[in-house]
Amino acid sequence: MRKVIIAAALLGAGTTRAQSPHVPLTPDEIAADVVAVAKAGAAIAHIHVRDKNGANTMETSAFAEVMEKSQAACRKADIDIVFNLTSSGGKFPYVMRQAHLKLLRPEMCSLTPNSMNWANSYLFKNEPEFIKELANTILENDIKPEIEIFDASMLESAKYYIAKGLFKTPCHFQFVIGVAVPGNIMHLSFMLQQMPEGSTWSVTGIGKAHLPMLLAGLAESCTCLRVGLEDNVFLAKGVYATNVSLVERAVSMAKLAGCGIATPDEAREILGIGRNWRQ
């Protein structure tokens, strides 16, 4: 039976309490959701952090506190999960966007190989200088990068960095659909055809594209499905989601499609992650 990995993107950089009453913002709330989604079937927790006012931050101390509390909560609950820390944060200095990776050495982190105008509203800055610095940090600290792909140009950039030896193969790609390209299967299928052979991949849809991309991922035999309040705050029209309810729906649909649900250790094997933070 083919196993599908479920990844939970818990809060993102911008989801607010005004948008969802269920988004976890404090370290204790994030830790509680990490345990809850792991129990529901998620093998990966994708983590952003917030400051005391709930605003996005890349402060190393904030990541350290969230990781300390999340790992402690997992140990207390006898729960395992792969932590995937963000490197996003275009307004923050390059050094700050990778300092937490050097200190905490998570099993995974995100990496976006291009800059882009996010939904035509602001610049999501990922300059070549930063990509090269971040890629070296990842290689030096044995972290598995989740290479975020918002459009086809990012795949071409990823291939460039592969050729330069900065991205270790096989790569794991996270397709984020509904920001730079419309949330339909045509765009996803086109990009899958451009993906380097042997790669693993995950997909998520933003907002109204969330459920269609979950179904498209299963139809296209994805490696991983990403769900969570970072990407979507509704389970149905007018019905607020929780991170747990989104994970539970992904688990149910994957099983309906004839797939098993990967455990964290199975996810590590599938993605080629060599280290377990619990060891």
Structural overview:
The protein has helices at 27-40, 60-77, 96-104, 128-140, 152-163, 185-194, 210-219, 243-256, 264-271; strands at 3-9, 44-47, 49-50, 56-57, 82-85, 108-111, 116-118, 122-124, 144-149, 172-177, 200-205, 224-227, 234-236, 239-240, 260-261. By secondary structure, it is of the alpha/beta class. The protein has one domain: Aldolase class I (TIM Barrel), CATH 3.20.20. The strands form four sheets. It has an eight-stranded parallel barrel with strand order 1-2-5-6-9-10-11-12, surrounded by six helices. Helix 1 packs across helix 2 (60-77), helix 1 (27-40) runs parallel beside helix 8 (243-256) and helix 2 packs parallel to helix 3 (96-104). The protein is globular, with a radius of gyration of 17 Å. The two termini are 28 Å apart. The model has no long low-confidence stretch (mean pLDDT 95).
What is the topology?
Elements: E1 3-9, H1 27-40, E2 44-47, E3 49-50, E4 56-57, H2 60-77, E5 82-85, H3 96-104, E6 108-111, E7 116-118, E8 122-124, H4 128-140, E9 144-149, H5 152-163, E10 172-177, H6 185-194, E11 200-205, H7 210-219, E12 224-227, E13 234-236, E14 239-240, H8 243-256, E15 260-261, H9 264-271
Parallel strand pairs: 1-2, 1-12, 1-15, 2-5, 5-6, 6-9, 9-10, 10-11, 11-12
Antiparallel strand pairs: 3-4, 7-8, 13-14
